[in-house]
């Protein structure tokens, strides 16, 4: 492993992974390849922009010629694919881009990777492929029951990686991360959305009764988990990267308000997300056996995260304009008007 292509490396988790890899492995060349969609942000990579072992290339993972060129020009031997449309609510409004990037994009990366003799391919996937888990914890061999267009697109992407392993002998590994939070997360997702809205004393639209359960993983722990699976995972295997920090959404929301010293009256129960999964939970046992452990418990991670958004308004205020406001209007205006 020497020349690593990190696709989607300008997003939330991808940029944490790039920052981690550039610092930890000065002998690797890290090439970030990113389309810079609404969610991609070059500000996330400012701290590494002058490092000798880091390069940035703008491009689309679903464009064969662009992928082929970057693989060839940088003599890439390893691909780590974070590139995705990643927001469930947007997939419900319009699944199109999800098929383009999360399905076709993964296929193009695998296919061009095979032609260029890639030695290892890591597909970053999600606990959402298992669907709603009433009780217990998902294991890697459990069946897939994805419920949103986003979850189905991620399941399709990782099944293609598996097929390239079985059919063509590609050395592919898969990570399935749980709900991730931390600095530099686009403020459409629960933690940064509610934190930045509450800072401005705006209403927090909590879907349904707020008693859905998510399993929270701090972003740096997720990045280290992908590093661990990339280096030590067995070809053809998937590994759950679970935070094992399960919380009700309502409790996460209340804690954010407490940390900010804001009133609980900002919470609004609004009509639920369509097809909303009630509970995700995975076992991290298999990844632990590779040597991965999360460092952050949820209370420590959430406190650090909320503080980061308080101290870094320069980062998120310029995002919450233009396209963001159009999306907000489409997703929340009706819901807030119809609040329960
Ligand atoms: P994000 O939306 O913050 O970032 C996605 C990045 O991919 C952006 O930089 C975007 O510009 C880029 N991108 C999108 N389409 C592209 C294309 N066609 N070509 C090249 N680049 C493209 O996402 P994230 O939250 O950082 O998630 C990263 C990965 O981790 C995704 O694959 C996601 O499914 C997975 N994941 C996320 C979470 C979570 O809680 N955020 C949990 C588990 C797994
Ligand atoms: O589980 C892993 C997944 O976690 C990743 O694969 C996805 O990329 C990531 O977006 C995340 O998906 P969720 O749908 O769980 O995350 P989100 O932050 O959108 O929502 C978290 C929970 O909070 C979910 O139950 C819906 C609820 N929610 C979310 C928003 C944005 C609300 O109640 N109100 C909101 O406005």
């Amino acid at each position: 492993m020497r020349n690593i292509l990190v696709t989607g490396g300008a997003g939330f988790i991808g940029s944490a992974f790039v920052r981690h890899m550039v610092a930890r492995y000065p002998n690797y060349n890290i090439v970030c390849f990113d389309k810079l969609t609404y969610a991609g942000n070059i500000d996330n990579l400012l701290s590494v922009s002058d490092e000798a072992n880091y390069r940035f290339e703008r491009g689309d993972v679903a464009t064969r010629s662009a992928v082929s060129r970057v693989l060839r020009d940088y003599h890439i031997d390893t691909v780590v694919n974070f590139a995705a449309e990643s927001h469930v609510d947007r997939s419900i409004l319009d699944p199109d881009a999800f098929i383009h990037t999360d399905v076709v994009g993964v296929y193009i990366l695998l296919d061009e990777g095979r032609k260029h003799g890639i030695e290892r391919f890591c597909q970053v996937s999600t606990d959402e492929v298992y669907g709603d888990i009433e009780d217990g914890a998902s294991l890697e061999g459990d069946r897939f029951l994805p419920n949103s267009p986003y979850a189905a697109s991620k399941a399709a992407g990782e099944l293609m990686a598996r097929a390239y392993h079985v059919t063509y002998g590609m050395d592919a590994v898969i990570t399935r991360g749980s709900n991730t939070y931390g600095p530099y997360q686009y403020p459409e997702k629960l933690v940064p959305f509610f934190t930045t809205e509450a800072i401005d004393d705006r209403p927090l639209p909590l879907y349904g009764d707020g008693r859905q359960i998510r399993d929270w993983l701090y972003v740096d722990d997720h990045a280290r988990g992908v590093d661990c699976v990339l280096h030590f995972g067995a070809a053809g295997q998937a590994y759950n990267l679970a935070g094992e920090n399960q919380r009700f959404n309502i409790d996460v929301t209340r804690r954010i308000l407490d940390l900010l010293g804001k009133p609980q009256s900002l919470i609004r129960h609004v009509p639920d997300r369509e097809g909303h999964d009630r509970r995700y939970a995975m076992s991290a046992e298999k990844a632990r056996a590779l040597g991965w452990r999360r460092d952050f418990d949820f209370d420590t991670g959430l406190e650090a995260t909320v503080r980061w958004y308080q101290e870094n308004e320069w980062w998120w205020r310029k995002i919450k304009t233009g396209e963001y406001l159009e999306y907000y209007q489409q997703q929340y205006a009706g819901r807030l008007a119809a609040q329960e």
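The longest strand covers residues 120-126. The longest helix spans residues 96-115.
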